[in-house]
Design a protein that fits this description.
alpha/beta, 5-stranded mixed beta sheet, 7 helices, 5 strands
Length: 175
């Protein structure tokens, strides 16, 4: 196995994400309901990261949010719309993980802002690729770029996207 493959298999933790992004707000999907004011979910740069739980209370799929003046960008590395990742899990598992209610939909509606999301699957859907956190970090680091500019930036690197974000975050984090 190559070093790059090992890097792509390593899933970033919340601590790893915080080391790269600083004091970004990081929370789990069920914690969306804990914010008294939706603005409290974002850091001073308009960034937030949450974990959609898939296995237990610490394992899942990272998703990024970017707040601008009049819009919120929902960034899912798989290109799913808000609440779209729920189709992966059974109703029983969603209930067990406290994700059976449309908390994200309620949260996004409470902002009163236009919400848009990427429809392009940036991350490859393979068991040996765990780059969702790396994609979210890259998107939040490059949040001043539009989604189209971000996509073109990755494409113009001449590398596969998962390779690019893995090497980018590895250079910063060392893992």
């Amino acid at each position: 196995m190559s070093d790059l493959q090992r890097i792509k298999q390593y899933a970033l933790s919340n601590t790893d994400i915080e080391k790269i992004l600083g004091k970004t707000k990081i929370f789990t999907y069920p914690e969306l309901d804990d914010f008294a004011n939706w603005e409290d979910a974002f850091d001073d740069d308009g960034r937030a990261v949450f974990l959609f739980l898939t296995e237990d209370n610490t394992t899942g799929h990272w998703i990024g949010l970017i707040r601008n003046d009049t819009t919120i960008e929902y960034f899912d590395p798989y290109g799913e719309p808000p609440e779209g990742d729920k189709k992966w899990l059974s109703k029983q598992k969603l209930r067990r993980l406290d994700q059976d209610q449309p908390l994200l939909t309620r949260f996004l509606r409470s902002t009163g802002m236009k919400v848009y999301y990427n429809q392009h699957a940036f991350q490859q859907d393979r068991n040996d690729i765990n780059t969702c956190g790396r994609w979210v970090v890259a998107r939040l680091l490059l949040r001043k770029k539009t989604l189209r500019q971000f996509y073109n930036f990755i494409q113009n690197s001449g590398m596969k996207g998962d390779d690019f974000v893995s090497l980018l975050t590895f250079k910063i984090l060392g893992k």
